[in-house]
Amino acid sequence: MPLLDLDPAYLDALARDAQEQQIDLVVVGPEAPLVAGAVDALAAVGVPAFGPSAAAARLEGSKAYAKEIMNAAGIPTAGHAVVRGVDEGMAAIARYPVVIKADGLAAGKGVIIAADEAEARGALEEILVDRRFGAQEVVVEEHLVGDELSLLALCDGERAVPMAAARDFKRIGEGDTGPNTGGMGAYSPVPGVPDAFVREICDRVHQPVLDELARRGTPFHGVLYAGLMLTDDGPRVLEFNVRFGDPETQAVLPRLDDDLLDLLERAVVPGGLRGIELRWRPDTAVCVVLASRGYPASSSVGDEIAGLDRVSGGVEVTHAGTADDEGHIVTAGGRVLGVTALAGDPAAARAAAYAAADVIEFDGKQLRRDIAAALTGA
After folding, report:
1. Fold of the CATH domain 147-268
2. pLDDT one-digit tens code per residue, 340-362
3. Do the bridges between strand 49-50 and strand 26-27 make them parallel or antiparallel, or are there none, so unpaired?
């Protein structure tokens, strides 16, 4: 099969080339093409695509819209207000810390946890006055306390089928310090989160979303990611993504004991996942993200990456922000690589992931050393 050099921003060209190449299935990964309507463009020329339509992808494209859907469907989430001005935002804050979210796509970096009035005003001005993320609205949200949990579900427009739970690490620094990122690591399974609880969450969160979107005439096909906080009052939704979340997917998919392609093809068809229950290997997967210098505020690019050929067998290295520079692999983004190890013992999986991460070198490499530490008491 030829490797097509396509810019996903040009959706008509993408659809035309997929049609000409007689592609059987397109799996749309990034959120921006989904929100822009990649699946719609492909459907218009008869090419099946795994992912939601632009209308359904608003669930990630607008945090305010996601809150509207949650309210309509009775899905538990944090108390919140949608505001358009700095003073309006300040008036909506009842207590600190408070969560300030830019409405729109921000690559996981448009969320600020403000500890006091000064930080909150600064965040609101950064988003609404400086327009750093291009947003015109902000969600001012109650700060929830508990353990975070990520749960993805495959969706066929009618039914949500839960995948294995994972836990990710959003902050750049160890001990959950520093600014938010797209994710610095993840692991699966999550101790204390049995299959029955996963099914319960899917029934209370994912399925009502599908039902509400179907009621509005925008059925959801693809994968629905729920970022949750397990509070003393039960699970609460922090955010939705409309794609395979990174790095949770790197920790979840290696454990899948079913044919992924078959599942993706089924999800494109309304009701195609009826009767499906996913099977999972009992092994633990640990993913450690390697980021470039300056991330998340900026990212160093063009730094040559060494050591990829020294990574031991059994460890998967997923390229994210990389490029080929005349035969040399170099950095080309903020989160550069995801290093994932799978093992029957959690300690062994964690050790293998870090051993591989340590043999990979590039100038300014950043990584957290506490990914999955709770699994081993480290």
Report:
1. D-amino Acid Aminotransferase; Chain A, domain 1 (3.30.470)
2. 999 999 999 999 999 999 999 99
3. parallel
Written out in words, the top-level CATH class of the domain with range 79-142 is alpha beta
DSSP 272: T
- Which CATH architecture does the domain made up of 11-51 adopt? 3-Layer(aba) Sandwich (3.40)
Q: What is the pTM of this model?
A: 0.93
**Residue 179 region by backbone torsions, left for phi larger than 0, else alpha for psi between -120 and 50, else beta:** beta
Q: Mind listing the pLDDT tens digit for each residue in 191-240?
A: 999 999 999 999 999 999 999 999 999 999 999 999 999 999 999 999 99
Structure tokens at 120: 């909150």
Rounded to whole angstroms, the Cα distance separating 225 from 205 reads 10
Phi, psi dihedral angles at 40 (to 5 degrees): -65, -45
Q: How far apart are CA 290 and CA 42, in angstroms?
A: 33
Strand ranges (E), 116-164? 138-142, 147-156, 160-162
3-state SS, residue 263: helix
271/268 Cα distance (integer angstroms): 9
Q: What is the rounded distance in angstroms from the CA atom of residue 118 to the CA atom of residue 305?
A: 40
